[in-house]
Amino acid sequence: MSGKLKNLPRVFVTQPIADGALKRLRRLTSVTVFPDDSRIIPHKMLVAAVKQADILLCLLHDQIDRAVIAANPKLRLIAAQSITPSNIDVAEATKRGIPVTVVPPVTTEATADLTFGLMLAVARRMVEGDRLLRAGKFPGGQSRHLLGAIVHGKTLGLIGGGGLIGKAVARRARGFAMRVLYWTPRRKPESEEREAGLTFVPFDELLRESDFVSLHSPLNAETLHQIGVRELGLMKKTAFIINTARGAIIDEKALVRALKARKIAGAGLDVFEFEPTVSAELKKMKNVVLNPHLGSATPEVREEMANIVVDNVEALLAGRTPPNCVNPQVLVK
Length: 333
What we know:
Layout: E1 10-13, H1 19-28, E2 30-33, H2 43-51, E3 55-59, H3 66-70, E4 77-81, H4 90-95, E5 100-101, H5 108-123, H6 126-134, E6 155-159, H7 164-174, E7 179-183, H8 190-196, E8 199-200, H9 203-209, E9 212-215, H10 229-234, E10 240-243, H11 252-260, E11 266-269, H12 280-284, E12 288-290, H13 299-317
Parallel strand pairs: 1-2, 1-3, 3-4, 4-5, 6-7, 6-9, 7-8, 9-10, 10-11, 11-12
């Protein structure tokens, strides 16, 4: 952790961020960083750190609740390296006059890559093969032992798929000659559908027809448990579900039951309903590929995100409204 510099605003960073952005931040402020990027900072430690900070720089996984926000009445800014402030009590921050900033959607291509990677990994049983080989077994190049599902030419269904990430996944699907269906509450113009190679179908029809169902909905009151017992029951027994959006879009208990009963073939999950806690039952299943929320985890994307966060901090310190402020009304004098 860095030492304190006199007369500079104090910033607490909840995990190490991209080096270039951190160097910029150190020129502007006195920076303290929780140094362990292998775990989320404990809540009590976060509360204690906020008490000593003027600005909190937090990441997507940090729970910035009322206790954290109330820990320091003089907190000047909550700068999140997150596209949405879903884990921040924005109402509480606004009530206390604390601006909250986020970053624009710069994770599109990286998340689409991961979505397709999960599809391939779970369908072709790549993780199982890796574990088998590391255990010293080699069934043979034409063994039936790890027969998987082909991806080429299959039907991909995108739920909430009319946005940036859904369209990016659809572009990748073209190379696999896939038929791409999508459903969203507000259908896109036909010209946009043609350009993206998307076919709009009703929600239930998408579930019934798709070999791969990929989730791209935002998490809100309407999409909480958007996929539950009924929806999983509509899917093909040979189908896979992929989630790189938000964990609570799927009723995780219902998913576990469906996988156990072989009502669907498998799942590729980058997000979880109760993360960082992941269901012990999911961890045991061979037909599930699990990632620890890696959607934006590339150096290029994280560097861009971190620099945007520093842009927000720099704007505030210069007396300007940060470009990505979700509650700018608190800055109106």
